[in-house]
């Protein structure tokens, strides 16, 4: 379903066992992240919107100079998604202090950590949904009172080469390449794909509807507007059929897209549009493409 010149067109079909076709298909979820937090809140917690998918919790903070973001003591890694609008910040862990001033991905090892903020702007943190303190804060926690049977559970990938450390992956070190789909980084539990900025609306004649067998896609809009087109396949129970959805969201916003819906996202703003796609666990199909995962030497495949 991809254009033949789209680098994804050569991806193989997923080889993981497909869940029972009789299981219900979850509904897509859409969040205007500014509506879930108080932009004028006195504390960073008040300015943080927390939502989740089955395996990952996303916290979007409208950060301010002087904020101290307490990540708690985590059993797994934490990832910080740093955009062009994000402020500089310092990560404090038992390994020391790491200052970050460039867009990209920052991976924080398990254990206690906090972030000191040195400017104003958005910071996005990813933690595993198994972390109770974060899971219970999620605005949509009730949607995952029970696991969705069509989503494969998270099994952490191998430990990083060289052991625990704060790792920074600046986008500036990796030029965009049309032969590669975005700029992709992975951790033991997450995969983050920084898609290119798009000037103006997407050509409606060149969309790329596709499906995933057993994983959710989180599409984080950080600039512009997007229309998320979702089609839910018909199962034998017609009372569970859903109409096609065409949901327009500005930024910052998040769409959680369940398997095996047919989906594509259409940039719609006349200015700059940008999406960041997030997956948990990391995608095997992307990981098997030579050169696509930019930090593969640090984070080996199973």
Please, could you describe this protein's structure?
- This protein is an all-beta fold and 302 residues long.
- It has helices at residues 132-135, 284-287, and strands spanning 29-32, 48-52, 56-63, 68-74, 78-82, 89-93, 96-100, 104-108, 111-117, 121-128, 167-170, 183-186, 191-194, 198-199, 217-223, 226-231, 245-249, 253-257, 262-267, 272-279.
- Helices cover 3% and strands 36% of the residues.
Essential attributes:
302 residues, mainly beta, 7-stranded antiparallel sheet, 2 helices
Strand content: 35-45%
Largest sheet: 7 strands, antiparallel
From the spread of the alpha carbons, the general shape counts as: globular
C-alpha Rg (nearest Å): 19 Å
How much helix is in the residues? under 10%
Low-confidence spans: 12-20
- Secondary-structure-based class equals mainly beta
Order of SSEs: EEEEEEEEEEHEEEEEEEEEEH
User: Would you report the number of β strands?
Assistant: 20
Oligomerization category of the chains in this entry: single chain
Mean pLDDT: 93
Tally of helical runs: 2
